[in-house]
Specification:
The structure is a single chain. With 98 residues, this protein is mostly helical. It has one domain (8-76): DnaJ domain (Helix Hairpins, Orthogonal Bundle). 53% of the residues lie in helices and 0% in strands. Helix 2 packs antiparallel against helix 4. The model has no long low-confidence stretch (mean pLDDT 78).
């Protein structure tokens, strides 16, 4: 089984600054959209991809609704980089008096 890392905020269409109310609202809207009992007949034809999307929504909400798990996810979250990483160093130089 291949383990892919997904951005849980992107799954719910939110930013990391989203409130719990925004999180709950996005979750419920996506749940209605992807749930087998409420999705449109056209989506039933692509059941496997819709079921995977539903599983991603459930996983994202499970992690992000719990403040401790969300904080842990935020600490471990890997953001995509655009271009080479620049390293900067700060030095403090002390002058010794003779």
């Amino acid at each position: 089984m291949k383990h892919e890392q997904i951005d849980l905020y992107a799954v719910l269409g939110l930013t990391p600054q989203a409130t719990q109310a925004q999180l709950r609202h996005a979750y419920r809207a996506l749940l209605r959209q992807h749930h087998p009992d409420t999705r449109a007949a056209e989506q039933d034809q692509s059941g496997a991809s819709t079921d995977a999307a539903l599983q991603n929504v459930l996983t994202a909400y499970e992690v992000l609704r719990d403040t401790a798990r969300r904080a842990d996810y935020d600490r471990r979250r890997v953001l995509p980089r655009s271009g080479p990483r620049k390293r900067t160093f700060a030095f403090t130089v002390a002058t010794l008096a003779p």
